[in-house]
């Protein structure tokens, strides 16, 4: 083979190799994008109160107290945006005296109103002045698309985000709830009486990313409609909030507040009777409920059973000390294994030819670990030479005279 042919062959191989690297790079980028889409991210600062609506705004006394306290109490500076109202409601009370009286009854002294249908006005410095010093904003019920049409991607929208950045709170029920998500789950019927959760416009204010909030959820029997939306937009997290119920979003977590339930559509199925979350095919087209006090991790898309127990960081060498196959109760077919996957210590059950998926465990203190929900505790035992010889698995952990379990600490 002469030098020219050899050079051409090398160049050809280099070109193929470059193309291969490019394809792999694109696939990795796509995978990262898909991973990003599978998460929902809340505001870095501030809080959101997202309510399901109902009579009298669908707010319980507890929900009002949470909103009032996070708004700053008696020093709160509240801005109310009633743009979701229809024209007849606004013409009936153009100065919003009825709304003002309702908020004064809830303890607010400083109340301003902002309303326009004109995006040019919504995008003006003069219009957004009240938001510059506000500590709280309330978005009324009505039709969420009216709010989106007026304020999406305007200076008003930017100032709402700025309010959150300075630790303010944005609240709303019904349409004022849906608008806070990234996708506007439709909340009404068309002129022919047909209902569809997929409507137009589709884009919300996006205070929580990759999420659709539906409201009046159980009261109006909309619990199965979310599947229609998720079939077309599988990256979304569906959250259905019933009347007189809300979620309080802080960071990437929320807590349920109120009298009824919140339905979660995240492609899994969870029940308080079980410690594991079903992510298999049996979780398809299923949803589950959370009640008052329950917490949910938006970013990880899972129930947050216990957020009060802090894990202790341990080195990779310390992790390796616990790895092993531990025979269970002298059985020859049942093992409790401790393995390492992706730099995380995990517990795994092996029984004959059945191998369970490993679950992460975290260090609480030396030789004591807990699972993600802090319901299972692993007490490792050592021999006289200090070598680990096994562990006990328990459903609770006593610390002093207190029992650490689930979301709270209770006296024993």
TrEMBL record:
<protein>
    <recommendedName>
        <fullName>Cyanophycinase</fullName>
    </recommendedName>
</protein>
<dbReference type="Pfam" id="PF03575">
    <property type="entry name" value="Peptidase_S51"/>
</dbReference>
<keyword id="KW-0645">Protease</keyword>
<keyword id="KW-0720">Serine protease</keyword>
<keyword id="KW-0732">Signal</keyword>
<dbReference type="InterPro" id="IPR029062">
    <property type="entry name" value="Class_I_gatase-like"/>
</dbReference>
<feature type="signal peptide">
    <location>
        <begin position="1"/>
        <end position="29"/>
    </location>
</feature>
<keyword id="KW-0378">Hydrolase</keyword>
<dbReference type="InterPro" id="IPR005320">
    <property type="entry name" value="Peptidase_S51"/>
</dbReference>
<comment type="similarity">
    <text>Belongs to the peptidase S51 family.</text>
</comment>
